[in-house]
Structure formats: structure tokens, C-alpha cells
Amino acid sequence: MKQYNRETSQVSDKGETMMRDVIFIPLSANEELVIAADGAGGIGEKEQDVVQTSYRILSQYTYRVALMECMAVGAVPFSVLVQNFISEEAWQIVIDEIKNMSQKSGLTELEIGGSTESNMPLVQSALGITVLGKVAKDEKKVGKTPSDAAFAVAGLPLYGEEVLTRKDDVLPLDLFLRLLKHPAIYEVVPVGSKGIKYELEHVWGVRNLRAECDFIDVCKSAGPATCVIISFDKAEKEKLSSDFAGWLTPLEMM
User: Fold this and answer.
1) Which of 52, 196, 221, 250 is the most buried (most CB within 10 A)?
2) How many whole angstroms separate alpha carbon 6 and alpha carbon 149?
3) Which one, of 64, 59, 66, 60, lies nearest residue 37 by Cα?
């Protein structure tokens, strides 16, 4: 059986293979299938859930991660698969939120499907969402960062209850879409549960970093991609700071 993983063709100056949290599968000589997924457990409306929140919010944040991972590498999503372990009643809530967020992101022709666990009632909520997209090889936003690029974080790393209580610090989806289109930005990488430092090391091979501002913990989980790292043309630093005022924290190497 042929096995695909999240390794890409990007190679650092040290010869290390860099990583992104998506799977690339060749479809033709010029196009690749992109698969991104996210899951959440113990978050929802059930009595034994660790974090109490509505299924509407759970759906938004779970879909957000998979959608951002897919689009960050340049792919255009065309389908979403839902793995619903909550209840039959929760299915429509999840689907409605996916449709609503997709429309706001300019994705009006997504095919949505999936499955619900209806035989075994679980004591905690669990939800998985997979996004499928396609990208032309010459439009793939991987390995585009030159050695003299600068880096910054947009948004703040948050997880658990913080995601609900500090909503103003979560990178908005519309701002994420603006980052993807900005001509001075080479790559955008959503930050996952292992934190900013991990993403810099495993995507770009960066070592010995520090945040310009002390209030960012570069090892902290960013939960449902509450922040992203951008690599950009350092000559455009002031313009980027103006275009995304209040959202960017520069990162520097020690």
C-alpha cells in the first residue's frame, strides 16, 4: 500500500525535510489533492465535557483549523467531511456552521458529507472535520520563503477556556484570508497545539528564536489555530505593520 504523509519537498539549508500539517497526493502532472483535518474532544455541551461551550462554537473552531491548513498551502477547498460523535441532533448545527463560514470565505460550491455515531452514546462530545482541496503545483505556497525573510506572529496563542474568554485575541478568519493574499507575505502557517517554536523549527528549520514582545509564549499551544506565523519580505515590515495594525508581533533570532 502506498503511504502518503505530511512531508513536503521543501528542504532547509541543512538538508532537512520540512513539514506541514496537510497531506499532498498527486492528481496529475500539474495538480495535487490537499487533505487537512482537525478534531476536538471533551469540548461541548455534555455534562462531562472539560470545556463547556455550544456546539455552534465547537463547529466553528474545529472547521476553522482544517480550512486554514488547507488554504494556507494555496489549495482551493472543494469538499468537507464531518465525523460527528456528539449526537444526531448536533449534525445539522455542525453543517449549518460549515456552510455559514464557507460562504463568508467565498467558498460557495463545497460538497459536504460525513457520518454520525448514532449507536453508542458517548459521555463527552467529540467532533472531527476533514477538508479536501486542490492546488496547482506552481501555485503551492510551500517552500516559498527565502533565507533572508523576516517572521511574525498574527494573533496570540490560546487554548481551552482562553479561546472563549479572549476572543479579541483570536486571529479572525477574514484577516487570515487577507494575509494569504498580501504580496509581501511568502507563507502563512497556522500554529497548532505544539506552539510557535515548534512550527518555526519544523516548517522552516528556524532555531534560537525569541518574540520581540515578552507577552508571547513561543512554546504555548495555539489551540484551534488562534494565531499564525507569517514569513515576509523584511523591506515591507512597516507596510505590513500598518496594513495589519495591532495584530503582528515580530519574531527575531537570538
Assistant:
1) 196
2) 23
3) 66
